[in-house]
Amino acid sequence: MMQHLVFLPILLPMLAAVLLLLPPFGKSIIIRRVGSVTLGIVTFVASLALLVKAQAAGTLVYAIGDWSAPFGIVLVADPLSTLLVCLTSLLGIVCTLYASAGDDEKGSFFHPLVHFLILGVNGAFLTGDAFNLFVFFEVLLIASYSLLMHGGDKRNTRAALQYVIMNLVGSAVFLIALGILYGVLGTLNMADMAQQVSQLQGDDVYLAKIGGLLLLVVFALKGALLPLHLWLPNTYTTAMPVVAALFAIMTKVGVYSMMRVYTLIFGDEAGELSHMAQTWLWWFAMGTIVMGAVGVLASKDLRKLTANLVIISVGTLVALIAVQSIEASAAAIYYLVHSTLVTAALFFLADLIGRQRGNVEDHISAGPPLLQPRLLGICFLVAAVTVIGMPPLSGFIGKVWLLKATVNTEYSMVFWPLYLLASFAILFAIAKAGSTVFWHHQATIVKSEIATSAESARVHPAQLVALIILISAAPLMSIFAGPLSEYAIGAATQLHDFNNTIKVILSGGL
Amino acid sequence: MELLYAACVGLLVSCGVFLILRSRTFPVVLGLTMFSYAVNLFLFSSGRLSLNQAAVLGYSTEYADPLPQAFVLTAIVIGFAMTAFVVILAIRGRADLGNDHVDGQVIDKIGDKSKNIEKNKKGKVNV
After folding, report:
1. DSSP code for B127
2. Residue B120: pLDDT above 60?
3. Which chain B residues touch A158 with a CB distance below 8 Å?
4. Which among A10, A296, B51, B73 is least buried, having the fewest CB atoms inside 10 angstroms?
5. Is pLDDT above 80 for A444?
6. Half-sphere exposure (CA, 13 Å, Cβ side) for A405?
């Protein structure tokens, strides 16, 4: 049983999703909610167990159907991938909990779809095979298409149509890249690919380069990197906020894939092709940060603001990947966890604030006073301090670490000012948004109008619990920064340990 | 054979890309389908083109690479599902937005966005 642990974070969400479609769960929404949250917790516990085991053992390799690598598909659970699996499962629980306050009734099949999405994301994190990565991408994408439409109106349909078409083209490009790489390397197992890349000669080198850079295009699309980021603000603002919070992990799948491909396959040992994407990554990352900062300043409502914060976080992460050092990767891992949780919390807050302000919703303009200004205000303050990167919360640690990791690099003279200016833009935009939303009230408020909508707009206990779990991550990540950063450094060391990774994966692990 | 094959893939890709860049959903869906056919053909060729070679052991002296065939099979299945989804989505978009443009807006002339979503919803659709 224990050797199958690696497979459980993929198997359990699938079983959960299928179970939730069955008749016993169809009768009452209460049963479905309780079942969904419980099954989410089961997945999370399995992910935690895997994390503990992977940390003790280094890298766990699971050959599906007992076909050993490089011929069969392997799942690879190392400290990095298991950490992200845990993060995904946690986010899944939080989102189902939040949606249980009523959002899940706005359309059908919310809970199964969430579990299918978790299945896809966990699979993408765990797989050690490039073609399998494509399959899991499709699984998570089709779940995300349906979730995007969930409880939607007309604006939703348009955003979904554009998102689906973009991603279908992206998938086709992904397949072309895989075809080229397979034709040249003769394998799609990532460890084996890494080994073959250094032995390429003649024209094959250029073909492999084309394949590798096409992969960059695909991951840039999924991760919303500069020229391909245009879908993100629209998609994230038209989706229900709870879905947008869940999507916070999806851009990170693209970033994670970049991390794997450009440190393992096209990393130090790739001969002529080593670090071939580095320059591209730098410039795209910095462009993304600039675009995100401009977007943050121009945002007219809180959800769009948060969507632009997601773009900035992607840019930051990609810049760290471009550095290609253990310290930068460790900083990226810490920053990735922090930014996923805080953006999800901000999406929740934007939703809760929007509900209490009647027609003004979450627009950054004067409106009726909030029903629970203290509760939401404190949560907003904590989330704001975290996302801006002010001491003492997790954002500050992440920021200092990433600045330290980029100090001795080629582009630090450009990156530092850009990143600090972007931070300033975030500070300014959030301070303005917060003071407008919480302190500027319209003088002409009809009291009765607010009273009628008052009770339904109060924060539901389930929403509160979900929000507090996400918000409390910021101080916790700062209090336990020591063990967490050690973990991140360990995971990053393993990510960069080329020979060991190859040996473990190709020999079947364990 | 290689030339013919490559020309086929290239033609499909160029038609597909052209159609994807159109503004109405139907040509876009057709374009996506063509593009995915091209991709499937391309993926199949990544195992090298050969004649009279079985992919199963014991049926010929030389073997074709079976893996690309498995890739293509997977890609076809996923492509089918995605095409079905995008067709339904396009129909829903036609119903919700009142027109079949990917932007949800009919633009007669450049810069003229007068016939937007709201107007189309009320009046007849100007196709």
Report:
1. -
2. no
3. 93, 96-97, 102-104
4. B51
5. no
6. 27
Enclosing domain of residue B83: 2-100
Residues 216-255 of A with CB under 8 A from B: none
Structural domain contains residue B11: yes
The 8-class DSSP code of residue A370 comes to P
* Domain presence at residue B124: no
- pLDDT reported for residue B95: 87
CB B68 within 8 A of CB B44: yes
Query: Cβ contacts of residue A165 below 8 Å, gap of 6+?
Result: B20, B28, B32, B86, B102
Domain count, chain B: 1
Q: Is residue B117 part of a domain?
A: no
ipTM of the complex: 0.85
Domain extent listing, chain A? 277-501
pLDDT confidence of residue B115: 47
Compare A270 and B38 and report the one with higher pLDDT. Answer: B38
Residue B96, domain CATH? 1.10.287
Q: For residues A106 and A15, is the Cβ–Cβ distance under 8 A?
A: no
DSSP A164-222: HHHHHHHHHHHHHHHHHHHHHHS--BHHHHHHHHTT--THHHHHHHHHHHHHHHHHHHH
Q: Is A7 on the interface with B (CB under 8 A)?
A: no
Nearest Cβ partner of B32 from A131, A154, A168?
Answer: A168
> A315 near A292, Cβ under 8 Å?
yes
CB spacing of B32 vs A176 below 8 angstroms: no
In a domain, B121, yes or no: no
pLDDT at A88 exceeding the cut of 70:
yes
Separation of alpha carbons A167 and A32, rounded Å: 31
